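Each letter names a residue; the fold follows as tokens. Both lines appear below:
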Amino acid sequence: MENMVNGRCGWCGTDELYMRYHDEEWGRLVTDDKTLFEFLVLEGAQAGLSWITILRKREGYREAFHGFDVEKVARMTDADVERLMQFDGIVKNRLKIKSAINNAKLFIEIQQEFGSFYDYTLSFFPGGKPIVNNVKSLADIPATSPESDAMSRDMKKRGFKFFGSTICYAHLQAAGFVNDHLVNCRCRK
């Protein structure tokens, strides 16, 4: 994979959906808990799969998980799990579906404890501020960081599923807590 494609980080290639995601979302700071919950669900679903697979099913996930309304997802039942196991709009993995429901309940607990999931996330960052890395090549982008290690460890202790340090780091990148756009990328700023 090239480092840069069309002035962008090379990981997004030339797929229209991937380029739009790169240009409009990835690495831009998300302060809204609803969007943070959406990324949490999607990143958990992505475990072991390619991100483009999940991006292509994003609307299906939106439909399956009540527009990512965390309160509604937290109230989903085993009957909902069975229904979603028949739904072609998402990856039909029982453990991942159940984890989205489990994680919604825990997400709400974190909101109650910290005021917001955004504030909780920032609590793992030095000075409570996002990090901007100076990455020159894709090979230099780490898979984890001290922040993702600590956050993932804390979330695991709280009972979150499908949120190891690598997935947590991808979540932090997607939600802009870590800016890993290459230094020459047109979206770096």
Q: What stands out?
A: The CA atoms of residues 85 and 93 lie 7 Å apart. The mean pLDDT is 95. The chain has one domain: 4-179.
